[in-house]
Amino acid sequence: MFLAGDFVYKIKKPVDFGFLDFTTLAKRKYYCEEELRLNQRLCPEIYLEVVPIKCQDGKYLLGGDFGQTVEYGVKMARMPEERMMNTIIASGNLTAAMLEQIVEILVPFYRECDSGPEVKKAGSQEAVAVNFRENFQQTEGFIGCPVLSRDDFGIIQAYVEEFLAREDVFRQRQEEGWIRDGHGDLHSANICLADQVYIFDCIEFNRRLRYCDVASDVAFLAMDLDYHGLSEMATGFVSSFVIKSGDKSLDQVLNFYKCYRAYVRGKISLFTSNAPEVDQTTKAACLVRAGRYFELAVSYARGQ
């Protein structure tokens, strides 16, 4: 990503992490187009176009008719950093009215999101189990480390497996139409509270991570608020969403998906803390963050 005045250009690295594959120019072009298409659902004013990056005589150009296309980027309008939701939270200035604005955006968004047969399958007991068990497998080598004790892991795993056995709950969510092609990454770092609410950076690179229960998205933001010590606001946010969306069964699965989201964030922080290219200060901060997320996952598993 690079900044250019009033605009931001996002470029995808040629990497393959298994859950995403940007290794060819054609794939990077496709996923840039997907990022544009999917994010224009919520903020077309921010996501503007896919721009070819060309090279001519050793110089790189954004767009134009000359030169060879060597890369693609998503052109976005630059958002005010001071109005990012995570910045507002850190300053202690988040209000219930701001969360109401977010609800007002999300309810019609999910109502219009695709809920066809392929999407609906993602809410099945089997599909949800794959996602959670994949996380357990990926963190297997870290169990017993200072921020993920064997006891805590055992509590989380037992809770998840017990909940996954409730096939009727997952079937109910499917039959009620709450499995949608939604956002997939709904947390405060991806929300800007400026002249209007901008909810951006949805997952474009893996449908499996974006096709999910609406409750999973709602739980992500609620968990994020819990993480920042704003549990009362989290409760208010969820209650407002339930009332305005009519999703009366959301509460049945909220803690389960909160646990899932907290565990994923803990996993990511843990991986970052162990990455060889990361400096010691960042490693220490990520390790602390991972511990806090895993503590949250345990609290949800215990029904707290």
Give me a quick take on this structure.
By secondary structure, the chain is an alpha+beta fold. It has 2 domains: 2-78; 82-301, Aminoglycoside 3'-phosphotransferase, Chain: A, domain 2 (Alpha-Beta Complex), CATH 3.90.1200. It has helices spanning 25-39, 85-90, 96-112, 117-121, 125-138, 150-164, 167-175, 207-210, 214-227, 231-245, 250-273, 280-301, and strands at residues 2-4, 7-11, 47-56, 59-62, 68-77, 179-181, 191-193, 197-199, 211-213.
Explain the overall architecture.
This protein is an alpha+beta fold and 304 residues long. The chain has 2 domains: 2-78; 82-301, Aminoglycoside phosphotransferase (APH), C-terminal lobe (Aminoglycoside 3'-phosphotransferase, Chain: A, domain 2, Alpha-Beta Complex), CATH 3.90.1200.10. The protein has 12 helices and 9 strands. It has helices at 25-39, 85-90, 96-112, 117-121, 125-138, 150-164, 167-175, 207-210, 214-227, 231-245, 250-273, 280-301; strands spanning 2-4, 7-11, 47-56, 59-62, 68-77, 179-181, 191-193, 197-199, 211-213. The strands form 3 sheets. A 5-stranded antiparallel sheet has the order 1-2-5-3-4. Strands 6-9 form a two-stranded antiparallel ribbon. Helix 9 (214-227) runs antiparallel to helix 10, helix 9 packs across helix 11 (250-273) and helix 11 (250-273) runs antiparallel to helix 12 (280-301). The protein is globular, with a radius of gyration of 20 Å.
